[in-house]
Amino acid sequence: MEEIKIVYENAVVERLDKYLISKLNEMSRTNIQNLINDEYILVNNKAVKSNYKLKNGDEILVILKEPEELNVIKQNIPIEIIYEDNDLIIVNKEKGMVVHPSAGHKDGTLVNALMYHCGDNLSTINGIVRPGIVHRIDKDTSGLLIVAKNNIAHQKLSDMIANKYIKRKYYALVHGEIKHDYGTIDAPIARNPKERKEMAIIDEGKKSITHFRVIERYDNFTLIECELETGRTHQIRVHMKYINHPIAGDNVYGPRKTLDTNGQMLHSKSLDFIHPITNKLISIDTELPNYFKNVLKNLN
After folding, report:
1. Could you tell me whether strands 41-43 and 59-64 are parallel, antiparallel, or unpaired per DSSP bridges?
2. How do strand 281-285 and strand 266-274 relate by DSSP bridges?
């Protein structure tokens, strides 16, 4: 990864994103804002928001991923569409599918499948690589994902997520037997300064809150339902590790000796929200996928 270090030398206070747009002419506004949101742009070694007001002497670190041309193609890949109208699609993503193309995953992603299904009817706010993608779930997390078909729906959905108007619940199988039936984890999350691909609990991180309740207990494992109040990268995985109950099968945040599940036992199970255009209630609850059911059956 390439790093660009800039010292802001100006008595005039200026927004971070606007300053970088003028400073880094080869990068688009969307690209810069995505880097800020993904915490690849730091000010004084801390993650900040796009509207951070730069002050004289602030040190800006821009971390650039290896550049690689991506040609996003339409692919006839089967996907399970739970709901669709003129403004949005809700997909039940299978475990192992990457949401959008990247340097390591040029095709075979959910975006490739959506482009085949929808043609050009996807929002363009996130650029050509992430059309329609309002929020993401990890490759090895299965379950519900909202996709926007136009920019108006995309912006409204983004605002709804930011303002906690979309209720998202996940099922997770975690290590250990959680004794109490309910709990709330309130611990700030930021990118791990020692390992940029991972997130961690850091005092200067973004506020992150996860509520959970126990569904069923097994020998050395607990099935829980998690409700996100915020939506940070790897939030549930990091929070469960923080309370010493990492998600089973998580080879990044969990123990080496765990269930052989090809990734974390985490499923985005339900969504409840008011449609941003029609104002109708959208309430969807999915069954646990077969891979999840089979693991629970073996535990029993």
Report:
1. antiparallel
2. antiparallel
Domain residues of the chain, as ranges? 2-64, 69-160, 168-268+295-299
Q: Is it the case that residue 67 has pLDDT exceeding 70?
A: no
69-160 falls under which CATH superfamily? Pseudouridine synthase (3.30.2350.10)
Same fold, 2-64 and 69-160: no
pLDDT digits (tens, 9 = 90+) for 177-224: 999 999 999 999 988 888 877 899 999 888 999 999 999 999 999 999
CA 148 vs CA 73, 113, 157, 290: distances in Å: 18, 14, 8, 28
What digits encode the pLDDT tens for the residues 26-38? 666 777 888 898 8
The arrangement of secondary structure in 168-268+295-299, i.e. its CATH architecture, is 2-Layer Sandwich (3.30)
Q: What is the pLDDT of residues 80-116, one digit of tens each?
A: 999 999 999 999 999 999 988 876 777 889 999 999 9
Look up tokens 């900040």; give the residue: 48
Tokens 């109708």, residue located: 280
Distance (Å, whole) CA 28 – CA 221: 46
Report d(CA 150, CA 173) in Å as an integer. Answer: 36
DSSP-H helix ranges across the chain? 16-23, 29-37, 110-118, 151-162, 235-242, 290-299
Give Cβ neighbours of residue 256 (< 8 Å, ≥ 6 apart): none
The pTM is what? 0.77
Look up the CATH number of domain 2-64: 3.10.290.10
Q: Which of 139, 174, 299 is nearest to 248 (CA)?
A: 174
Reported as a single tens digit per residue, the pLDDT across 253-286 is: 999 888 888 889 999 999 999 999 999 999 999 9
Catalytic residue list: 138
- C-beta separation of 144 from 269 below 8 A: yes
Distance CA 267, CA 137 (A): 9
